[in-house]
Amino acid sequence: MRLTYFIFLGWAVSLLAACTTEYLPVQAVEYYFEPYLNHHDSATYVGMRPCLECHYPIYESYMRTGMGRSFGRASPSKSDAVIGPDSVIYDPHTNFYYQPYWRDSILYVKEFRLEQHDTTHQRIEKVDFVIGSGNHTNSHIYSINGYLFQIPFTYYTQKQRFDLPPGFEDGHNSRFGRSLGLECISCHNGLPELVIGSENKYASIPEGIDCERCHGPGSIHVDQKRAGILVDTALYIDYSIVNPGRLPRRLQNDVCARCHLQGTMVLKPDKSFYDYRPGMALTKVMDIFMPVFEGGTDDLIMASHVERMMDSRCYIESNAELSCLDCHNPHFPVSETPIIKFTNACLKCHGSTHQSQCRLPEADRLAANNACTLCHMPGRDSRDIPHVVITDHKIINPATEQKGVKRFKGLKAINNPATDALTKAKGYLREFETYHDNPAYLDSAARYLNPSHKKTDAEAFKAKVQYFYLIRQYASIIKLVNNQEKDLVLGSWLTKTQLDNHDAWTAYRIGQAFENKNRIKESLVYYERAIQLAPYQLDFLNKFGSVLVATNQLTEAKRIFARIINENPRYDMAWVNLGYVELQLQNIKQAHQSFVLALRLNPDNEQALLNLASYYAAIGQNELAIPYLIRVLQLRPDHEQAHKLLHTIRKPNG
Question: Are 301 and 394 within one domain?
């Protein structure tokens, strides 16, 4: 909500006329300002504890809601899982088993592999956090030096079963390597403190979605109340804090849409996930894209509540005045809310009695407890999260549901129908890179980018680099860089350390383009810029170190790989690369140790297997080299280098 003032300048113009012969037209000048004091930069987050001084009953009921239970330290009280000896998950694609277990109230997960009833691999990680309220799932996180990663097991509470987490199925098991960035954590939790220049390293992590996620930073409000500055909220709005219930309906829904409109989020230039504050229009910070389909039976993703509501006839015919708060009290659990609360929300528009609107026989209505939602907001499977059923927030007439062939129409910015072409291009690029690698998305991105245009501005340049990178046209990236004024790219466009590492990612992609065209010296310039801007993005560091090895800068490369390991000792490729450098420096024992450590972390690391085979072959212990080569060929039967080395070892007098 914002106050608007119109100041008519007729009086000012008459004064000016006495001093000049130039007459200015009378006009209205519109001034806007946000009335909420906690939108100001001086407002800070104070956490939930001060809220208890005045709002304890609300706090107590809120902590029973899904949001209140969204995130916490792993403990028996936080976990909904019933874990026993048979709580084992098997991934047939990787031949790994996962077994969670408690020991002295600490939760662990053991990854292991069985071959002919023998355990050939075992890795144990302590679970630090449980993410998920337990209404649908509990997933699990471990932290290593502040870097957060998802653990490959989830408990699906509705079906009371253990399985791999969403996105780990069907051969996509990333084991212990899925980074949890700010986009993920900032919706499942209060606002964490991300270490700038990283992807998933946090200086601090709150425990659960707190009051300030919906009400905004609380420092000014708390200071005013402690100073005795009170507002009669029955008569007036207290502008020291945002009360979503007092916002215009669209801004109310934006508060919910920040996390309950899950899609492809495209941040505005120089904005981050920290920049949205309740009471603002969400379009000031981000546009959220969702795929739109025609025909077929509706389906939905887990957190698409706002998008589904906005697709309802009720919402459209209300002129966007239907609000999440018409049905939901965020301070109170849905499971404890009487059904009549939801029914009454329907009756505000649909009459005072069911008899005048509902077509079901009275006996059926009574059996359904007069719950409109059972028919008009049915539970459905979600297409992105297995083993869960959620309430579909698209209010439907069941008899008129669409059938037939389902056809993809494109991406749509759900919260901003007026989004510009460049933002649409970014949406398609991000959808391709993050969710669905459908080439049609890249075709759409190209249409909005007009990539044949030679000169461009910074934002379009970065989007075009991403586009060419995704279609693997590395020469086009180099041409795009060369088409700019000398030093413009490095001197002006790729200079910012950002929470989303946007400039660093562009530098990395340019470095990859030069490397792929065997222009190694130039690639180092851009890789070095990437790690300057994102010094805790360990994949960037690993790539930089690898290129240093390729240019025979072994001492510097060793320092880079040691730096990665110091940050994250679980980074198996850094151990492999460090071992290779040690081998080149004739530090044979240290090289062997590094390769062994890499395989303890990942027994399927092809390069570690190959390097150990080469190591044993070099010292004449061929019988020890052969099993590693066989394992490489089991993983990749067409591995040419492994075939050659195995042939050399096995041939007579080899």
Answer: yes
